[in-house]
Write a structure and sequence with these properties.
Largest sheet: 2 strands, antiparallel
Distance between the termini: 58 Å
Number of strands: 8
Strand order of the largest sheet: 1-3
Shape: globular
Order of helices and strands: HHEHHHEEHHHHHHHHEEHHHEHHEEHHH
Number of helices: 21
Radius of gyration: 28 Å
Structural class: mainly alpha
């Protein structure tokens, strides 16, 4: 297994760019640059409205004297109140890159976006390398998979950071209950889904488990282990997968509701029919992808159809798999394309809250009014993470499935899996002089052969893609219904 090769050079170059250049040229900053935010009214402006009306040209001497007391009196009395019904208008300004360094989740957002872009660059350069030298794909380990696994670990950690705050302190008991309820309900749904036959829903869990079990039996025979059989291991594995599916659904609860809120606000704020159509396509496209896994509705209906101008080509099973994976990539890129539009929609929430405050009777503390507007901008990157992290997780899974399943978008089919003998891929300690070292190396080599099971990983990664898309669409649909018929 070659280590010091072109792949390592690609990895070192991209890692250097990630460490040295990303702080000056950052893809994360490009996603924020150009957005317009609402500025909170300055204290000097609010000070003029403290008596109940704005000061006009006809001022009394006492009122003029109170205005001319200077900034020191304003700073000494930051808790003064103003009428809610005032004629103050919010000003807008373009967000600069330097503005985001002082708001919440800045480091997490920059890190996960830059890391994913670097991992994607390493993956595509590696695929280009394997396309030019196909024999190296068999002989070398794909280092880009390690990059994608690092991205997955960081995405899960950020999911944890976004949701664990709800369980700290006594506040947010409603959010805690909703997360636990969604996690438990989707755990039950996942267990029910995995009981379905592959002729109905093409998850491939049984096929993947049978594949790795067969390899484990070979490993046991070659290493002469005396352990007993694994009774009921498939059931235990499905229960474990169900727990993971429930946790993922719980983590997706509030990002999906956030997406629903952004979708409803974006539809309400735009007057363009074409843009509304694109918003709806982006929102309902996951439903189309989920149906592609329903065999009677997708594969059985589409495979065998005539294609092309002369209708001389048929849609094969391999091409159907490529189309299904391509739909996942298209969906992820479509959501990324609407990232700035949805973030701009979120920033307009500051104006909505400001006008809603005007319709309420009474007075409001000036500092509270400023915070009402400022809080929207301060949580901008938290909303961006709720939007971006599920997409990054989905695209990382899709790239892993592409590498494990030997999909070829250029040839439009799935290539046969090519694996080299164990002696050429995993041969640790074979030439060692010590017999104990050779035995340990032999066991490690055989175990690596068991772990290196593309069918097992491909089926589970594709199941993760389908589950994440389906759960996200169901929760987002519930959120759209909630925000459509409630004034929140």
């Amino acid at each position: 297994m070659a280590v010091m090769g072109i792949q390592l050079v690609i990895t070192l170059i991209v890692a250097t760019l990630l460490h040295k250049v990303a702080q000056y040229i950052s893809p994360a900053q490009w996603t924020i640059k150009g957005l317009m935010r609402y500025k909170s009214p300055r204290t000097e402006v609010l000070w003029r409205y403290r008596t109940g009306q704005a000061q006009s040209g006809k001022k009394t001497k006492d009122r003029k004297k109170s205005q001319d007391t200077g900034p020191s009196s304003i700073l000494n009395d930051i808790t003064f109140s103003i009428p809610r019904d005032n004629d103050i208008e919010l000003q807008t300004e373009e967000i600069r890159c330097s503005d985001i360094y002082n708001i919440h989740f800045c480091d997490n957002y920059e890190w996960i976006v830059n890391l994913f872009c670097s991992a994607a660059a390493v993956y595509f350069l590696t695929q280009l390398y394997f396309l030019c030298w196909p024999e190296m794909e068999v002989q070398e380990m794909n280092l880009s998979i390690i990059w994608l696994l690092v991205v997955l670990c960081n995405a899960v950690y950020i999911f944890y950071l976004l949701n664990i705050a709800l369980f700290r302190g006594s506040e947010g008991t409603g959010e805690q209950s909703l997360m636990i309820l969604c996690g438990f309900c989707f755990f039950v749904v996942a267990m029910a889904v995995m009981l379905l036959d592959d002729g109905i829903l093409e998850l491939g869990i049984n096929q993947a488990f049978d594949n790795i079990t067969a390899k484990a039996a070979i490993f046991k025979t070659r290493t002469q282990l005396t352990t007993g059989e694994w009774h009921g291991s498939l059931t235990v594995w499905k229960v474990f997968l169900g727990i993971m599916c429930g946790l993922l659904a719980a983590f997706l609860t509030f990002p999906s509701f956030r997406l629903a809120r952004l979708h409803v606000d974006a539809i309400n704020q735009t007057d363009s029919g074409l843009l509304r159509l694109l918003y709806n396509v982006s929102f309902f496209f996951p439903l189309f992808i989920s149906i592609l896994w329903v065999k009677p509705l997708a594969r059985d209906s589409l495979v065998g159809l005539k294609m092309g101008r002369s209708l001389s080509h048929e849609l094969s099973d391999g091409l159907f798999d490529v189309i299904r994976l391509g739909a996942v990539f298209f969906f992820g890129l479509l959501r990324i394309a609407f990232l700035q539009c949805h973030l701009q929609t979120y920033l307009s929430l500051a104006q909505q809250r400001f006008y809603r405050s005007k319709r309420e009777p009474g007075r409001i503390v000036a500092l509270e009014l400023q915070s009402l507007v400022q809080r929207v901008f301060m949580y901008l990157l938290g909303v961006a993470l709720q939007y971006v992290v599920p997409i990054i997780l989905l695209l990382s899974w899709a790239l892993l499935a592409h590498s494990q399943g030997s999909y070829s978008f250029i040839q439009g089919r799935r290539l046969p899996l090519q694996t080299a003998p164990a002696s050429s891929r995993y041969n640790w300690g074979v030439n060692a002089e010590d017999e104990a070292v050779r035995e340990i190396g032999f066991v490690i080599s055989q175990f690596a052969e068991v772990v290196d099971t593309p069918v097992f990983w491909e089926k589970h990664v594709m199941f993760g893609c389908w589950w994440m898309i389906t759960v996200g669409f169901v929760l987002s649909s519930c959120g759209v219904v909630y925000y459509r018929y409630t004034d929140v």
